[in-house]
Design goal:
By secondary structure, the chain is of the alpha/beta class. It is built from 10 helices and 7 strands. The site of uridine-5'-diphosphate has 16 residues, from strand 1 and helix 3.
Length: about 325
């Protein structure tokens, strides 16, 4: 039987934990009863340097309930890193991990569907939000804008999928090969491959506490995602340079026409032309230099070049 670990990053979640914890235990019990997971399945909470009583609560719960495990990070490292620490810790002795936010805005009843898909052979199952009726107008617009923008900037992501997902230990072993320090899990996980599945659900509002993802953190995440997955911004410099050179050509025509019609100051033509021309040339050069920096950047990440799914060799 497969052992499931539900991995929950927590940052200042003292209000949410007492509500979330029993519900997650309930999910475990239900799945064990249905013979879908092993009875040694557990919850793994990661305290991401909380300033409130989150850690004390976790310590207490761990004493009372042996299915509750907890990691304390030495300081706040952000959602993505907290999640990673939990996933890799769980991968050591669990066969399946499901990552979910501590506020349980993601529908926990779908964990069963995820596990079913895993039993059907999926190594990764993405939780995808059907709609965002319950999010505030502001959160919805900014979040949807986020996914669109990422797409425009050349980062492949699963639309409306955050970090609610099932990963098998096999998929996690491949994820571990991505050694980069700037992690943007939503971009990395789809790079792994394997058979994947999705479950759709409706996201509910946060029941207690406030969002730990203010606009500033969303911007930081978007920036992280774009700059670690795409060299498009560099290409944009190049394109801009090209555009400027075209404008330069038009400006040249305009300048010559003005020059020959006689009503210009001395030196105006040459100055205006050099400004546009040099500007364009500089931007194109910057783009070329950037292109190489982009290559170096990809090189230093040392990402695995392939992930092998199965190997049919001789013997056995
Ligand atoms: N979180 C974390 N470290 C941080 C910020 C957030 O571990 O620095 C956790 C937080 O406790 C929650 C999850 O990341 O479990 C997502 O945060 P939140 O629900 O506030 O984000 P939102 O749903 O508003 O996007
Ligand atoms: Mg939330």
């Amino acid at each position: 039987m497969d052992r499931l670990a539900i991995v929950v990053p927590c940052y200042n979640e003292e209000e949410m934990l007492p509500i979330s914890l029993p519900r997650l235990i309930g999910v475990l019990e239900d799945l064990v009863k249905k013979n879908k997971i092993d009875s040694s399945s557990y919850l793994l909470f990661i305290n991401d340097g909380s300033k409130d009583r989150t850690w004390e609560l976790l310590e207490e719960e761990h004493k009372k309930e042996n299915r509750v495990r907890a990691i304390k990070l030495a300081r706040n490292r952000g959602h993505q890193n907290a999640l990673l620490s939990g996933l890799f810790t769980a991968a050591k002795d669990a066969d399946i991990t499901v990552s979910i936010d501590a506020d349980l805005q993601d529908d926990i009843t779908k964990i069963e569907e995820m596990v079913d898909l895993y039993h059907d052979g999926c190594e990764i199952v993405y939780g995808v939000r059907g709609d965002r009726k319950t999010d505030s107008w502001f959160k919805r617009t900014t979040a949807e804008g986020f996914y669109r923008f990422m797409e425009i900037m050349g980062v492949e992501t699963i639309y409306n999928h955050a970090d609610y997902r099932l990963m098998s230990s096999k998929a996690l072993a491949e994820l571990a090969k991505y050694e980069e320090t700037n992690v943007y899990l939503r971009g990395l996980v789809p790079l792994i491959g394997y058979k994947t599945g999705t479950v759709t659900y409706e996201r509910t509002a946060r029941e207690a506490g406030e969002s730990k993802y203010p606009l500033s953190k969303m911007f930081a995440l978007a920036f992280e995602g774009i700059t670690s997955f795409s060299v498009k911004p560099i290409r944009m410099i190049m394109s801009l340079g090209m555009v400027v050179l075209v404008v330069c050509f038009l400006a040249a025509i305009y300048a010559f026409v003005s020059y020959f019609s006689g009503n210009v100051e001395d030196g105006w033509t040459s100055i205006i032309l050099s400004i546009w021309f040099l500007g364009g040339v500089q931007l194109v050069c910057l783009g070329v230099v950037g292109e190489y920096i982009g290559k170096i950047y990809k090189e230093v990440k040392r990402r695995p070049k392939y992930n092998i799914e199965t190997y049919l060799s001789d013997g056995e």
